[in-house]
Structures are given as structure tokens and as C-alpha cells.
Amino acid sequence: MCFLIIIASILPICLGQIPSIGHECLTPEVVQNFNVAAYLGKWYEQEKYPVIFEIGGRCITAEYSLKDDGTVRVFNKMIVGARTSSIEGSAKLNSTNGEAKLEVTFNVPFAVRSPYWVVSTDYTSYTVVWACQELFGITGSTAWILTREQNPPDSLIEKAYNILKKYQIKTQFLTKTDQKNCS
């Protein structure tokens, strides 16, 4: 039982795939007056820090929709080999002042919670997301660049990179997500 509690405690850190010891999480500014309704819909993952749960995945998407209880349904999908893999979770605003600080929960098989901070978005073409957690002096961080178009212009990705750099979020860890031959 003790082992399970330890695993449950460190799993969120392990899922944040850029670990560091003795460093605090970066706390970039996030979108103010976050419009959840405008954020809903389908997003295509363009780049991200490597994460264990996406190993071998391509054509990765995230789809957000409003649930009856006011939380957001999170439906992530990808192709691994010749098979489609998906997971469903939920997200809720983790702030009362309109900041785009959400908490996402996936039950796999127990609740795994992670921050989901929207650092920048125009709601119609791109979003830059940051997540970082600290536990026992270890931080695990993840960044994502998502777009509404499956194959966006390079200028949009460059814009996202500039936002990450503005907040000193390291871009050298980003890896491209294959969005080709997804049909």
C-alpha cells in the first residue's frame, strides 16, 4: 500500500517530462479574463516537451467541450502504429479571478492531476500551454504548442516560440508532432 501511495505521489512529476532537481517551477503570466467557451473545440498538437504518455504517437489532437457540470471534457487522441489511442479527462478553472490556470484530471486508474496554464492564445489559431509541478525538490515541466489548423503556417509556430522565449521557457526541449497522413 505504501508503494502505491509513493507512486501516486510522484506520477504527476514523472508525466512532466523535463525534470530538474532543486529548481522551482517557472510561473509565466497566463491569459487574463480567460474565455473558456472560445477555447473549446479541436486543437492540433504541433510541438511539445516529450511526454511518456505520447511515446510513438502522431496526429495528436486535443478536443475540449463543456460538460453539464460546468467543467471541460478533455478528449486527447493520437495514432500509435496503425491504431488510434485516446483518453478522456476533465479540466476545471483553478482560479477565481479569470486567469487561465486550469487543472486537468485523468483517471488512469486513479486520479492524476496536472496544471494546464494557458500562457497565450488568440482562441482561433494558436495556444501556448505550460504545466509544471514540484514534489520533494523535483520539478517536472511540459510545454505545448497547439493550433486550430493541422498544418499551420511557420509564422504561427514562430510566434509561439517567441512567447515561450519571452517567459524563459526553454524551447530546445520541444519536439515536433507528426501531423501528416492522419486520415
Automatic annotation (TrEMBL):
A GO molecular-function annotation: pigment binding
Q: Which family does it belong to?
A: Belongs to the calycin superfamily. Lipocalin family.
Q: Where is the Lipocalin/cytosolic fatty-acid binding domain?
A: 35-177
> Which CDD domains does this UniProt record tie to the protein?
lipocalin_apoD-like
How is this protein named in the record? Apolipoprotein D
- Please give the chief subcellular localization of this protein: secreted
Per the record, GO CC terms?
cytoplasm; extracellular region
Could you provide one GO biological process annotation from this protein's UniProt record?
response to reactive oxygen species
Q: Mind listing the UniProt keywords for this protein, alphabetically?
A: Disulfide bond, Glycoprotein, Lipid-binding, Secreted, Signal, Transport
Q: Which InterPro entries match?
A: Calycin, Invtbrt_color, Lipocalin_ApoD, Lipocln_cytosolic_FA-bd_dom
Localization terms from the record:
Secreted
Cite the source lineage: Eukaryota, Metazoa, Ecdysozoa, Arthropoda, Hexapoda
Residues making up the signal peptide according to the UniProt record: 1-16
